[in-house]
């Protein structure tokens, strides 16, 4: 299963149109997420465009591996997830993975047609929108692109992790 | 927390004494376990005396990291465990870990005084006994050694994985 996804910064020019869409969408969930990103002992995940993270949300923890992006426009990539509990952070550290950064955000998730739209208020970064589609076909990313065009949104391909690391420099 | 542990092969000379002890012990649990062991992309776990495995038992899956043995006699070592579900095998494979071998066994777990005694019927290896004590102090392994002496048992420090790999050669 692929995670077809595009992201954009919400600003004063785009906020109005996004809010129009959200009025037609169904609010599914609002939650606080804290992500811990890890670096690999053998690969520079920044170079290979991979990511390994643990996401804590409520009483759940999810380990996620994200493969390299599959095209030049979207954030679509291969993704594997496992629910975890117990000593997972210690196990990763013993295997040589190191904590890079924590990303904290408040996330509102909406369902709009076949799309999952997340409105993220990210600590130290501000508000972003993500549109996601689950599919086995990378070509379906065009459907997200069309919605982006309708909303005059500009695709931000860098992850919150990258944006936060840039800001810290 | 340390896993203080010693293991011995059960044979016709030791079986009688072990059964005497088990008659005074309480049977806690009987279960089938299937362990998948992984090799690391950067370290030779055989050299570093570490192990990474997923244990499937019933509907549970546990990811375990075992550090190097802490002394020359027992199998005592640092151990971290996490319950896992979902794509954990795929995540490990994406990070470069490779499946080495599956170890299948029927395990009966007894409580005898402060010791946990496991009687393992291991596929392709036969019957083994393991005596375990949870403790923060490596010196407590002497209490297991004393019980081993009482039972005339000889310590087997090699893991089931190592024994199976030797047998396959």
List keywords for this structure.
homodimer; 169 residues; alpha+beta; Hypothetical Protein Pfu-838710-001; eight-stranded antiparallel beta barrel; 5 helices; globular; CYTH-like_dom_sf (chains A, B)
The mean pLDDT of chain A is: 93
**Shape annotation of chain A:** globular
Major sheet characteristics of chain A: 8 strands, antiparallel, barrel
Total DSSP E strands of chain A: 8
Identify low-pLDDT runs of chain A: none
Helix content of chain A: 10-25%
InterPro entries (chains A, B): Adenylyl_cyclase_CyaB, CYTH-like_dom_sf, CYTH_domain
Pfam family, one (chains A, B): CYTH
Organism (chains A, B): Candidatus Methanofastidiosum methylothiophilum
Protein name (chains A, B): CYTH domain protein
Kindly describe this structure.
2 copies of one chain form a homodimer. By secondary structure, the first copy, chain A, is of the alpha+beta class. Chain A has a single domain (2-168), classed as Hypothetical Protein Pfu-838710-001 (Beta Barrel). Chain A has 5 helices and 8 strands; from the N terminus they run βαβαβββαβββαα. Chain A has helices at 15-23, 45-48, 88-94, 141-150, 160-168, and strands spanning 2-9, 26-39, 51-57, 60-69, 77-86, 98-112, 115-122, 126-135. Chain A has an 8-stranded antiparallel β-barrel with strand order 1-5-4-3-2-6-7-8, surrounded by 4 helices. Chain A is globular. Chain A binds chain B through residues 40-42, 50, 52, 63-65, 67, 80-88, 90-91, 94-96, and chain B through 40-42, 50, 52, 62-65, 67, 80-88, 90-91, 94-96. Chains A, B: InterPro entries: Adenylyl_cyclase_CyaB (IPR008173), CYTH-like_dom_sf (IPR033469), CYTH_domain (IPR023577). Chains A, B: Residues 1-166 form the CYTH domain. Chains A, B: This is CYTH domain protein.
């Amino acid at each position: 299963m692929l995670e077809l996804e595009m992201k954009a910064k919400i600003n004063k020019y785009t906020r109005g149109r996004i809010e129009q869409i959200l009025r037609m969408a169904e609010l599914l969930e609002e939650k606080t997420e804290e992500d811990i990103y890890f670096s690999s002992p053998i690969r520079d995940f920044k170079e290979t465009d991979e990511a390994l993270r643990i996401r804590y949300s409520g009483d759940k923890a999810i380990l996620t591996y994200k493969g390299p992006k599959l095209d030049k426009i979207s954030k679509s990539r291969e993704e594997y997830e496992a629910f975890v509990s117990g000593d997972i952070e210690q196990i990763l550290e013993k295997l040589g993975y190191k904590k890079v950064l924590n990303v904290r955000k408040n996330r509102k998730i909406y369902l709009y047609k076949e799309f999952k739209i997340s409105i993220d208020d990210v600590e130290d970064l501000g508000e972003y929108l993500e549109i996601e589609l689950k599919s086995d076909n990378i070509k379906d990313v065009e459907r997200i692109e069309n919605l982006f065009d309708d909303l005059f949104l500009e695709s931000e391909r860098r992850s919150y992790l990258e944006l936060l690391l840039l800001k810290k420099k």
